[in-house]
Amino acid sequence: MMLWTGIAVVSGLLVGYIWGKRDGVIYGNQQRTVSVPLLLRQQSFEKGYCVLCHEPKKKWIIYKLRGQYGKRN
Amino acid sequence: MWPAMFEFMSITCSVIFCAMSIKLADDFLDQDVDRSERNFAKKIGKGTMLYGMVSMAIAVSLNASISVSLFFASYIIGMFHDLKRYFPSHLNGIQESLLVFILGVFFWGWRTMLFSIFFVISIQLLDDYIDYYTDQLIGQRNWAHRLGRVECSLLFLLNLLAAWLVCEHLFPAVFLGTVVFYSAILYYQRGRL
């Protein structure tokens, strides 16, 4: 009986850990998908150029700024 | 009282000698990958396999059922990395594992064989948990890398408990033999199995 209890407890811990880890990975991925473009955009605005490609510098930023407010020209 | 104690001690000693033979065979097969001084095959040289066979013969003389079933189980677990590879017997890893398992069940019974498999899996998982950083350095992916360290440790515990459940009368002696052998190896190799 003690052994069965031990097996049940360890199995429960294992299943719970795997479940929690999977949930954490999914949540982390969603969080990353949302926050990384915002962070990149913020850093690009602060530095004045695109932090990924470094060019076109000012024009790209101005274009993006206008694009945010729906102005393309 | 004395026969029971003698049986307990014979099982423990048999497990120690069996573990020694498995360790020597493993070191002999891994000597191309593991070139460290801690590899027994490097120290002993060509006679490694012979010493392993002598050790296995002593283990079988002490207790045939547990030593042979543990050896078969180690063979099956060792195949897990090469399940799809074809061996000189013209069988692949899965087929050889199944054949050895059936032979083990035929000779020693399903309970002993199942106990040995659970026990050897647990030892393998513990070994991989301890070797996590060492195997990472040499670029080898073990079960701790594949499953994760916590999962590996929990599975180790689960397999150990399952082995205990399958064969309650064998477990204490086998466990003691394994602890004695691995403590000696850990002391000798300063932390690396």
Question: Can you tag this structure with a few keywords?
Answer:
heterodimer, A: 73 residues, mainly alpha, 78% helix, B: 193 residues, 77% helix, globular
Provide a descriptive summary of the structure in words.
The complex is a heterodimer of chains A (73) and B (193). Chain A has 73 residues and is mainly α. Chain A has one domain. Chain A is built from two helices and no strands. Chain A is rod-shaped. The termini of chain A are far apart. Chain B has 193 residues and is mainly α. Chain B has one domain (2-189). Chain B has helices at 2-29, 40-44, 48-62, 64-78, 93-108, 110-130, 132-137, 143-147, 149-166, 171-189. Chain A binds chain B through residues 3-4, 6-7, 10-11, 13-14, 17-18, 21, and chain B through 148, 150-151, 154-155, 157-158, 161-162, 164-165, 168.
Strand element count of chain B:
0
Structural class of chain B: mainly alpha
Helix content of chain B: over 70%
* N→C terminal distance of chain B: 36 Å
User: Unreliable segments of chain B (pLDDT under 50, ≥5 consecutive)?
Assistant: none
The domain tally of chain A reads 1
Query: Strand share of the residues of chain B?
Result: under 5%
Portion of residues within helices of chain A: over 70%
Radius of gyration of chain B: 16 Å
SSE pattern of chain B, N- to C-terminal: HHHHHHHHHH
Average residue pLDDT of chain A: 82
Provide the number of structural domains of chain B. Answer: 1
Tally of helical runs of chain B: 10
Quick one: which chains have the greatest interface?
A-B, 11 and 12 residues
Set down the secondary structure blueprint.
The complex is a heterodimer of chains A (73) and B (193).
Chain A: H1 2-47, H2 58-68
Chain B: H1 2-29, H2 40-44, H3 48-62, H4 64-78, H5 93-108, H6 110-130, H7 132-137, H8 143-147, H9 149-166, H10 171-189
Helix pairs in contact in B: 1-3, 1-4, 1-10, 3-4, 4-5, 4-6, 5-6, 6-9
